[in-house]
Amino acid sequence: MSISLEGKTSLVTGGSRGIGKAIALMLADLGADVVITYARSEDAANEVKAQIEEKGRKAKAVQADAVNYERAEEVIADIVDQWGKIDIIVNNAGITKDNLILRMTEEQWDAVITTNLKSIFNYSKAAAKPMMRNRGGAIINISSVVGISGNAGQSNYAASKAGIIGFTKSYAKEFASRNIRANVVAPGYILTDMTGELDEKVLESIKAETPLGRAGEAEEVAKAVAFLASDLSSYITGEVIRVDGGMAM
Ligand code: NDP
C-alpha cells in the first residue's frame, strides 16, 4: 500500500518557505499538481514552482495575501478554470508577533489573528462550492501545539491556532455529507525561518520538553499532511494530529 495523489489538484498557502514548501514538494512527489501562494518571497516561490515542475507536475506560484477573501476566491476560481477542479487545500500561511499580553499591541493581535485564522476561513469557504461540485475534497489546516497548550508571550498566536481547531471541526461537520473532509495538523517545534528567530536558551528548553529530544523537520509535518490529503485517511475527519515529538502529550 502506498500514498498516491495522482490526478489531484492542490493548493498550499504560504508555500514559498518552511513547512509549506515541504508540503508542496511532497504533494508533488506523490503525484499532485500544486499551486502555492506567497506574500512577499517571489523568488523563493518561483524556485519551489520550478522544483515541482522538475518532478513532472503542473505548478503555479501566485502572490496572494491570505488575509484577503476576494483574492482567495480568485485563486481558487483560476485553479478550477485552468485545471478543472480543486481536490486538496492546505492552509499553512502563518506568522508570529510575540509579546506578553500587557505589552501586546492591537496591531500585533489583529495581524496574527487575521493572517492565521481569517485566512483559513477564506480558503476553506472559497473551496467549498467547487469541492461540492467535484463531490469531495480534503482540507488540511496547520495549527500548532501552542493552540492546544497555550504559551506565555504567544496569546495572539495561541488564540489563532486554537481557533483553527474549532473552525475545522465545525467545517468537518458541515461538509461531511458532501464528502469533504477537514483535519488539523498541529506541529511542535519545527526548524524553519519562523523558529530560526528564537534564541538559543528558548530552543534548548523546547528540546528538553520534547520526549523525542529533538526539533522536527518540515518534511515530517508534510508526511502527516500527505496522509490526510490522501484516500488512506478516507474515514478521518475533524481530527487533530500532533506532529510534535510528543511535546504536548
Ligand atoms: P515560515 O515563516 O518559514 O513561512 C511562512 C510562510 O507563510 C511563507 O511562505 C510566507 O510567505 C507565508 N505567509 C506569511 N504571511 C502570509 C500572508 N499574509 N499571505 C500569504 N502567505 C503568507 O513559517 P513556518 O514554515 O515555520 O510555518 C508554517 C505554518 O506552520 C504556520 O502556520 C505556522 O504557524 C505553523 N507552525 C510552525 C511551527 C514551527 O515550529 N515552525 C510550529 C507550529 C506551527 P512569504 O515567504 O512570502 O513571506
Detailed description of the structure:
- The chain is of the alpha/beta class and 249 residues long.
- It contains 9 helices and 7 strands; from the N terminus they run βαβαβαβαβααβαααβ.
- The protein has a 7-stranded parallel β-sheet, sandwiched between helices.
- α1 crosses α9 (218-229) and α3 (69-83) runs parallel beside α4.
- It is globular.
- The two termini are 29 Å apart.
- The model has no long low-confidence stretch (mean pLDDT 97).
- The chain binds NADPH dihydro-nicotinamide-adenine-dinucleotide phosphate (NDP).
Global Rg: 17 Å
Number of helices: 9
- How much of the residues is beta strand, in percent? 5-15%
Mean pLDDT: 97
Alpha carbon gap, first and last residue: 29 Å
SSE order: EHEHEHEHEHHEHHHE
Short description:
The chain is an alpha/beta fold and 249 residues long. The protein has helices spanning 18-29, 42-54, 69-83, 106-133, 146-149, 155-175, 193-196, 200-208, 218-229, and strands spanning 9-12, 33-38, 59-63, 88-91, 137-142, 180-187, 240-243.
Tell me the layout of helices and strands.
Blueprint (H helix, E strand, L loop, with lengths): L8 E4 L5 H12 L3 E6 L3 H13 L4 E5 L5 H15 L4 E4 L14 H28 L3 E6 L3 H4 L5 H21 L4 E8 L5 H4 L3 H9 L9 H12 L10 E4 L6
Helix pairs in contact: 1-2, 1-9, 3-4, 4-6
The structure holds NADPH dihydro-nicotinamide-adenine-dinucleotide phosphate.
